[in-house]
Specification:
Layout (H helix, E strand, L loop, with lengths): L2 H10 L3 H35 L4 H39 L1 H6 L7 H27 L1 H19 L4 H4 L3 E3 L14 E3 H8 L2 H43 L7
Antiparallel strand pairs: 1-2
Helix pairs in contact: 2-3, 2-9, 3-9, 5-9, 6-8, 6-9
Keywords: Membrane, Transmembrane, Transmembrane helix
Membrane topology: Multi-pass membrane protein
Pfam family, one: Myelin_PLP
Length: 245
């Protein structure tokens, strides 16, 4: 066998769909976890500086942010390992790889493993759909805040009107109802929207939301890939290609 034929057979054994899904998963999780972690830190700083004067008013929020950041660490580690496992499973069940290496045949263990990956990946996709929806909430909050600030800038010549335009962090559950001031109105709100903290936090949440969407796309691609791999294994098993464990 020549070098060209050998290279083509090796390239034919690459599970390209699983490889693309793995790249999507790595980039999406990195974007979601990295930007989400920093966005939570900036959110705490924004609330502390502009919406709450007393530490007791946002201490619960600070604890929640810390817990979510620990969860982010766990998510990054889990998805890194799980994506590697799915990619390895894709290599194992690629028909070209089985043709190249005779010992990689359809086995009972292989079909059970593929079934397990299908169920886990489907469950993760459903859960991550919820995460994707929840990650839109801070984007919605900052979008409303930016829209209100633009309205204030347009109506800046009528102070009596702009003082009625407010963003109340208590309405979004970020602060308790007895927090003081708990909201920002008028030119105070407009000045908040011009700060570095606001623009940075807004952009980070948008990036985290995009990362969640990329990760969801990767999980759906994995569902398709693992289902196809399972179908191939079942077909080979029915053809009698050594169903052993």
């Amino acid at each position: 066998m020549g070098c060209y034929e050998c290279c083509m057979r090796c390239l034919g054994g690459v599970p390209y769909i699983s490889l693309v899904a793995t790249l999507f998963c790595f980039s999406g999780i990195a974007l979601f976890c990295g930007c989400g972690h920093q966005a939570l830190t900036e959110t705490e700083r924004l609330i502390e500086n502009y919406f709450a004067r007393n530490l007791q008013d946002y201490i619960t929020l600070a604890y929640l942010i810390e817990y979510f950041q620990y969860i982010i660490y766990g998510l990054a580690t889990f998805f890194f390992l799980y994506c590697i496992a799915l990619l390895a499973e894709g290599f194992y069940t690629t028909s070209a790889a089985r043709q190249t290496f005779g010992e990689f045949r359809s086995t009972v263990c292989g079909r059970c493993l593929s079934t397990t990956f299908i169920l886990i990946t489907y469950f993760l996709a459903v859960v991550w759909l919820l995460v994707f929806a929840l990650s839109a909430l801070p984007v919605y909050f900052f979008y409303n805040m930016a829209t209100t600030c633009r309205t204030i800038d347009v109506l800046s010549e009528t102070p009596s009107s702009i003082n009625q335009l407010c963003v109340d962090a208590r309405q979004y559950g970020l602060l308790p109802w007895n927090a003081v001031p708990g909201k920002a109105c008028g030119m105070t709100l407009s000045n908040v929207c011009k700060t570095r903290e606001f623009f940075l936090t807004y952009d980070l949440y948008i990036a985290a939301f995009a990362g969640a969407g990329i990760t969801l796309l990767a999980l759906l691609t994995y569902v398709v890939s693992t289902t196809y791999n399972f179908a191939v294994l079942r077909y080979l098993g029915r053809k009698g290609l050594g169903p052993r464990c």
